[in-house]
Known about the structure:
mainly beta; Immunoglobulin-like; four-stranded mixed beta sheet; 0% helix
Amino acid sequence: MTTIPIAAPHDGQHVAAQVGDVLDVVLAETAGSGFQWRLAGPPAGCAVAGETRIPGDVKHPGQPGSHRWQVVVGAAGKHTLTFALGRGWEDDSRQRVAITVTVN
C-alpha cells in the first residue's frame, strides 16, 4: 500500500495507482464563505477511508483552509473521482475537479 499525495489537483488530472493504494486528495476551501468541496460518490471500486477539514489561520477569520480525503482504491480499472465546490443551499456548483485514477 502506497499513499499518493494529490495536492491542489486540476480538472482532468490522471493518476496511476495499484489496488490498495490510498489517494490523499487535498483541495483548498474557505468554508466560512459557505463554499465547500464535496466528493460525488465515491465511484465503485473506491472507498473513502477518511475526510477532514483543516481550518485556515484561526487568528485571521476568513483565511482559506483545506479539505482532505483519503480514498482507498480497491479494484483494478479506471475510476473517476469528482469533487464539486458549492454551497449546500444551492443546486449548482462553482467549480468541479475530476481526477481519473487508472488502477492496475
